[in-house]
Amino acid sequence: MNVGVFEAFTLVVRRELCLSFRRPEQLLQPLVFFLIVTTLFPLGLSLQLSLLRDMSPGVLWVAALLSSLLSLDALFKGDADDGTLEQLALSGQGLMVIVVAKTCAHWLVTGAALVLVSPVVGTALGIPVAAFATMMLSLGVGTLTLSWLGAIGAGLTVGLKRGNVLLSLIVLPLAMPLLIFGAGATDRAISGTNAAGALYFLAALCVFTCTLAPFAATAALRITLE
Amino acid sequence: MWTWFYKLASPPSVYAAAGALAPWFLATAAVAIVYGLVDGLVFAPPDYQQGDAFRIVYVHAPSAWMSLFSYTSMALAGAIALVWRIKIGHAVAAASAPIGASFTLLALVTGSLWGKPMWGTYWAWDPRLTSELILLFLYFGVMSLRSAFEDPARGDRAAALLGIVGLVNVPIIHFSVTWWNSLHQGATVAKIGKPAMSLSMLWPLLAMLLGFMLFYGAVLCMRLQGEVLNRERQAKWVREAIKS
Amino acid sequence: MNTAADGLSVERVHVWRGDRHVLKDVSLALRSGELLHVAGPNGTGKTTLLRVVCGLLRPEQGQVTWLGQSIAAIRAEYQGILAYASHEPALKADLTALENLRFAVGLKRRVARDELRDSLRRTGVEACADLPARVLSAGQRRRVAMARVIAMQASLWLLDEPFTNLDAAGADMMTSLLQSHVQAGGSALVVAHHDLMVGTAPMRRLELGP
Fold this sequence. Notes:
Chain A has 226 residues and is mainly alpha-helical. Chain A has ten helices and no strands. Chain A has helices spanning 5-22, 24-44, 49-72, 74-82, 84-89, 95-109, 111-124, 132-157, 163-191, 196-225.
């Protein structure tokens, strides 16, 4: 009785969620990091609230990118270290199913969690409530795209001892368009102008990345698994 | 059918061809660059707005162009090596990356030197220069990834894949940076200009561009020889080549 | 071409790791009902050979075929009939033994919980089924890994040092598992640096030299 692709996908997603909920501290760490980084900026800017409000989209987005990136390093590394990645790769399912499932699960426990926390951070940074919808939408789309860019980076650096710094070095330049459109959309929502343009670009980037990145991430993992 | 191609791409013949081509590239590059510099810096008329300051374009524009050209050729060489398993492509990509990064750095330095008289500051987050800066980061990523692997074959393939991903992203990055810039700065800062150039200004620029291309070819050949020797150091022909 | 069309065949495989020529012209054939013991001192490429046979590592030269077809061409099908046990037990420390089995075996075939428990019982670690792998001893982890191999119901076993960390009783169990697998028509490629004592099964030995 063969196992279908969708069945395999849900099984791997369940495995990943199960693993992350067994280690709740690893789930919380990126969120706490997100909060800490956003606290750093007001403290470093000598509390001029108007200045802070102008900078808040950038601050929010930089903090979100960095904290998502922090957890991306572990996307394949844990499985590679204990040998379970080889078992997954030999499971008879295509490697791409595994990669897609793992990346989606990663986004669920980091990106989606980040979106849920963002109103708290947004309030602290003086972002008006009216802009929350755009902010959360852009963060959701942006972190999903970042998870995919990061999956390529994580696949490329999985076997390396100090992969973490290299991962950031590889992924951050690729993530700059995300930052531009994401912070741009949030910025426009705050100033009350139409944010649709930036959101469309962000969504286009997301669709484009989610279409091609699975192939790239799978190829990357194949290279480093050898 | 493709055997002649694989023979052509075999390390000894590439080594020999690169050695034979390098001096020709170098000589023609010297001629083109000397002509371009003399004509551009001395004989071309000064710009009616920027005066003599514009003359840095003769170094800036060709190096900016070459930074993209080298990245593209690096990514394509890597892609060919990855898809058809032609190992020499990895050597070309590895040889190309540092040259391209140097061109990028040169474009950044000359760009900001040009910015000083034009904008009164060395760095004004001009979209082209910002894209160029991100391109430099992409080069750094590819080069560090290649050297991070203990097994050079895996490093080669990983770097090739990253190069392709970067190549797909270069236009996206450039577009998004332009969009961002239009949002923030509008028309207050004049762009590094491409108004219609007079022919007397254009000829030296084209000569410089050709010269830079040939110079790239020459350095690529020399670096490629080094790469091939290093990669094939176990092979018999390398030992013979070194002995003689 | 390939005449051993009824099983696994490795033909003239070469693998380099940087400057090291790890596998030099290795060939082997393995039919159903056969056990092949790959022996040799450390650093002679035993694990590398196993990874090549799995398809995890593509050799620079030579080919691996299953039933006469290149394993790269029939990847999914080939993976369906093989069970690989790597040198490390490949268990998630935070999952229980049973969950480890479920998430690994469940990708290969639909499997009931009782069946997984049964395979844990056959390797003598049924009591550990609901304990996280973190608290198991090295020998118990090895047994759980072996239970995973059994539960996959694969016809080709690829085992890397399966006797490591096992006590005398465990080694006996391992031997009898191998024996019954081979007698039932399966085949096994076992990497071990000491002698295998599998009584009745026809066993051949491949010695990898430096």
